[in-house]
Amino acid sequence: MARANAFYAQSGGVTSVINASACGVIETAHQHKSVIGKVYAGRNGILGALNEELIDTSKESKRAIAGLRQTPSGAFGSCRYKLKSLEENAREYQRLIDVFRAHGIRYFFYNGGGDSQDTANKVSQLGARLGYPLTCIGIPKTVDNDLPVTDCCPGFGSVAKYVAVSTREAAMDVASMCETSTKVFVLEVMGRHAGWIAASGALAQDRPGDPPHIILLPEVPFQQRKFLKKVKTTVEEKGYCVIVVSEGAQYKDGTFLADAGGKDAFGHTQLGGVGPMVAELVKSRLGYKYHWAVADYLQRAARHVASKTDVDQAYALGKAAVEFAVAGKNAVMPTIVRTSDKPYRWKIGEAKLSRVANVERKMPKNYISADGFGITAAARRYLAPLIEGEDYPVYKNGLPQYVTLKNELVGKKLPEKW
Amino acid sequence: MARANAFYAQSGGVTSVINASACGVIETAHQHKSVIGKVYAGRNGILGALNEELIDTSKESKRAIAGLRQTPSGAFGSCRYKLKSLEENAREYQRLIDVFRAHGIRYFFYNGGGDSQDTANKVSQLGARLGYPLTCIGIPKTVDNDLPVTDCCPGFGSVAKYVAVSTREAAMDVASMCETSTKVFVLEVMGRHAGWIAASGALAQDRPGDPPHIILLPEVPFQQRKFLKKVKTTVEEKGYCVIVVSEGAQYKDGTFLADAGGKDAFGHTQLGGVGPMVAELVKSRLGYKYHWAVADYLQRAARHVASKTDVDQAYALGKAAVEFAVAGKNAVMPTIVRTSDKPYRWKIGEAKLSRVANVERKMPKNYISADGFGITAAARRYLAPLIEGEDYPVYKNGLPQYVTLKNELVGKKLPEKW
After folding, report:
1. Which of B78, B139, B197, B294 could form a disulfide with B111 if both were Cys (CB 3.0 to 4.6 A apart)?
2. Closest Cα in chain B, distance from residue A85 (Å)
3. In this predicted complex, what is the ipTM?
């Protein structure tokens, strides 16, 4: 294939390591100058392509690009924007091809979750159909860890580490004061559809019986009586109870706990958190003093406590995406293939985008403990390696030095606005 | 003074560095064996003395004691328990003296905030009155940073660092998606009476105009219209708005925002968080999509991102307390004396417990910006050095290795229970 430019975009919720993938893409493309010319990044993800807002990454210093490896968030901006099917909105796809053609772009790297892999797959089909062959490579990313085929998704390992570390620390705090103060602590974490993040709280345990004592997963329908009984037993036995609850915790009928008609079980209006809701439930039924925390964006932005494994994989997948493209592959996504649990060994694999698109991987049943409040040894074997290793950012004046790019846009070439 | 045993207790809310002070006390006492025999720690703070539950720290390995320096929470347990005045409850003080006498304790180290310094002061007076001379030394501790005389309080610097780092990270996350997603992010932090913790969020700023754009301090009465206007202007100018709110944020009449009769401005029942309340206010009045986080115990337990300055000071104050005792001082507390802002230089000073007890230091007026939503250069000069330096705990399998002590109790000697 003749030399051409590349387009890279970040999609959906950002993570603490998605920029490490960007770094892998840009640095690796630079090593293949005979094949890949400029790397243009979409301003705010795929919208950057539609709006012809292309960031010229060659205007950034080598040092700034290297700094992406330790910078959380989406350095070029991201968006939640899903392209419709080819039939429903051919105009959007046509526009993408128009922009790509105008700027000599023949490589499309899309860094995101299941929806994004679906988009990349469609763009690849369309290119072929419109006689503008495009090489489309997906790069996995999602803190939800819900993509199929790959061992794990970049972004998840660091959130898992944040949740495990925070749970351990907060639990020690509660334990040291429970005799006269807080008895129940609830930490709300992300994961609307799959319990991977909440499950990782269990990594805080060194021994059985260690906190967190209860994990509420979306995969296990919430049973109030059983839950309250477990809280009570735990407080009576241990003196305190630490609970990690997934934002996606739900009743049997699929209603979210935090979303039950705007009211909780006691007619209180919800302000949006399942964490406070669960804490209130405990207080009103069992009378225990409680505290709760909602980590929200803090967890997925926490580059300061990122997993080195996660950072390394994020970079390696960005690098592999470019190498796939250079090798002439198309409509594929590099994956992580686990070859050993302990020590953890992994290599880069390959999945067709059509196999990845729109498939959601939930926690397998054999990862959930019999009582539904914890995880099994199999889950621990799977999760433990993903939080291994520390990869601290450089600090200055007590704060991590994260990179802000210049993000200079390329001049527009198309007459019409989007 | 003849050789005697020492009693050490942790008091009130624990921090990520109070064990570093314990480490300083125990290791330094060990260097003065001719003066100080055993160091007994109170199980659950001062309750350990009243209940005659004394932990023999000499049963712990040298390594475990050294490990306290990097372990958050209260390793011996803490409590919220304030002794009454001598007149109101002489029995409690008498009991303390009885326990101390029975166990040959003539040194009393009390590690806590204003209330605890008050207690230490009273115990010292009482000892003299009852003919049982006790050396009473306070050791400052409080994430609220509200003790007078000392430059700062151990525990605060690390919370400040956690809040500054988390604010920076979450703000980058919001910034990268604000065009199509969340516009307003609210982080709720501790500090019921003083805004020191919320103010430290401002350290996330490199330049004026950087996030956090709004800080809501307890010292500045909340004005809804002015606040909403600032949010709107910020979103219009920057594309997003990051708000750090103190749990103690209040109206002019002293009512907490989060506590306004159990209902917020719209009749919603509060589930306890000012963070979600402020976020809801923004949503209902301005319509912006929001996210909120409540850090709660996570912030004061976050040893993984502790300030090295804070850890060093916590240890140094524990060490100084023992050295004061050995030097024959009484009813005093070692303090931090700042000798230079930049580079930050400090030394150990000394304050009479009577000067420290029950005095609350709020943010000075000249630390608060004219519009009330930020801090001044003077505040920045004061705060910045306190988060300097990293002091990472040792990790194993991706998790910090915190110490759990054996906490063996000494046999009881008194016939009566408390």
Report:
1. B139
2. 21
3. 0.96
